[in-house]
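Your task
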Amino acid sequence: MEKIVCALWAGNVGREAFNARLHTELPGALHRAGALQIRLNLRDAEVESGVTLIQRWQEPQQDAVLQFWLPSANAIFRAEIDRLIADHCDHFAAWLVAESTIIPNKAHPPNSGERTWGWSQASFINFRDDLAHSDAVEIWHSHHTRVAIDTQSNFEYVQNLIVRPLTEGAPTYSAFVEECFPISALTDPHAFFNAVGDQAKFEANLSAMMESCGRFIQFGRIDIMPTSQYDLG
């Protein structure tokens, strides 16, 4: 089995109509075409208050993220899947990824078809240009992962290392990261950094996280968006 992550752009379609069609039509069609473990990350009204958390590289920025598994991501076996996705958006980009589940969602497990509790931060990142890829991965996996666990209120944390692009012209990213947080963390930095009522802890966690990110992430070439997460079978 291989995992695919897609970024989808709505084009001129309004976001509410775009999200509704993705949610009601696309998962079933993909499942019938052989896709498994389908997940949608939608930018919707539920996460609008988290606008200050957005970091943008792509212009326009992607409007949704689609994740799923196939027995093979090879192009000759993916044609129907790609056609279905293209029929539901203005355009899309896809990548083959290697998934590593750091924190599985045991605290608020999703129900199929329903919005997952809290919200999901969907992050497309690039590693620093001055680092060898292997060195960036080493920092990410062996240092930053522990920092991200210890300094945030995330109850799900999944790292997806990009193996290769699957579509022509896909933006060049190094990884896609998904982390789920309580809804309060959309607007309260202290809640995000697991330091409600503790200013000293907040400052320490924020400083540790920013220092750690700076060791391997190329700021200015990242796309970070608050989303609503839906697991759809």
About this structure: The chain has five helices and eight strands.
